[in-house]
TrEMBL record:
InterPro entries: Compl_asym_regulator, Pan_app, Sushi/SCR/CCP_sf, TSP1_rpt, TSP1_rpt_sf. SMART domains: TSP1 (SM00209). This is Hemicentin-1. Keywords: Disulfide bond, Repeat. Transmembrane segments: none annotated. Residues 4-51 form the Apple domain. It comes from Magallana gigas.
Length: 298
């Protein structure tokens, strides 16, 4: 079919107001509307858009054809009403409308109103002349905005001390966003610190102090030194240091020197005369008598 034939066929259809003729595929689309700002129709290097300007009455030999018939002139110069349209009205689509129509073949393509989303695999219906429309498997759905579901349980803390983080989660499924609806606002996860108590620290000994003074200068005294459990200090239930915090030691174990030092000069005893007076009634002195007595006894 050429462009002129396409144009003449549109003029024969009472509902046809314009055509789109594809130069490459030689396809003639008969349209029931004219181009507008809201409905731009093809008119480029591949297609030609033409509007029907003449008003043609659908009459054959003075008698009108029905709504789904077209007046065709035969080779005998007679006019006949030939069924060229579908015998049914166009199917209705809630929240949608016919976006495009063709008359050869007879078809209607549907689209959804602004703000609605089309769902389904078949949005174009066809019809043979005088027949019924094929099934429309298409619907228009309003947007469904997402809503958060309930929080899940808190997860386990990864550490037993020293501070960690545990999480819980929720899903955007109450309801799930569909048909162009907005996703849920906010985060799908939540966190909290856990087991922030300090970890046990076992104590460690620091360095020994210096030795103290000896308690004696001779004959074995005692000295001591000490250390502290501060390297580190035990904390958060950690064990204290094992062992003693002080250490004693003997010192100055030499014997002390004898009393008086290196030795005394002179006699260690001294005698002296005493009672040198004469005894009463005798002519001898007392010590003489004592000496005499001593001699007799020997």
């Amino acid at each position: 079919m050429g462009l002129n034939s396409c144009y003449k066929e549109c003029k024969a259809h009472g509902k046809c107001l314009s055509i789109n003729f594809n130069r490459k595929l030689f396809v003639c689309e008969l349209l029931s509307e004219k181009k507008s700002e809201a409905k731009p129709l093809a008119d480029d290097q591949d297609s030609v858009y033409i509007e029907i300007t003449e008003i043609i009455e659908k009459k054959c030999d003075g008698e009108p054809c029905n709504n789904y018939s077209t007046c065709i002139r035969t080779s005998l110069n007679n006019s006949l009403c030939i069924v060229t349209d579908c015998s049914e009205v166009y199917p209705d689509l809630d929240d949608g409308a016919i976006a495009d129509r063709t008359f050869t073949p007879i078809s209607a393509t549907y689209g959804c109103n602004v703000g609605f989303t089309g769902v389904g695999s078949v949005k174009r219906v066809t019809c043979i002349p005088g027949g019924k429309w094929s099934s429309l498997s298409y619907r228009c759905e309003p947007p469904v905005h997402g809503g958060w579901g309930s929080w899940g349980s808190w997860g386990y803390c990864p550490v037993t001390c020293g501070g960690g983080t545990r999480y819980r989660y929720r899903s955007c499924n109450n309801p799930t966003p569909m048909y162009g609806g907005n996703s849920c606002y906010g985060s799908s996860s939540d966190s909290v610190y856990c087991n922030t108590n300090g970890c046990p620290v076992n104590g460690g000994w620091g360095s020994w102090s210096g030795w103290s003074s000896c308690t004696k200068t001779c004959e074995k005294g005692t000295k001591s030194r000490s250390r502290s459990c501060n390297n580190p200090y035990p904390a958060y239930g950690g064990a204290a240091c094992s062992g003693a915090s002080s250490q004693p030691s003997d010192c100055n174990t030499d014997k002390c020197p004898a009393y008086g030092g290196a030795g005394c000069s002179g006699a260690s005893s001294q005698s002296s005369d005493c009672n040198t007076d004469n005894c009463p009634g005798f002519l001898y002195r007392c010590n003489d008598l004592q000496s005499s007595a001593t001699s007799d006894n020997s």
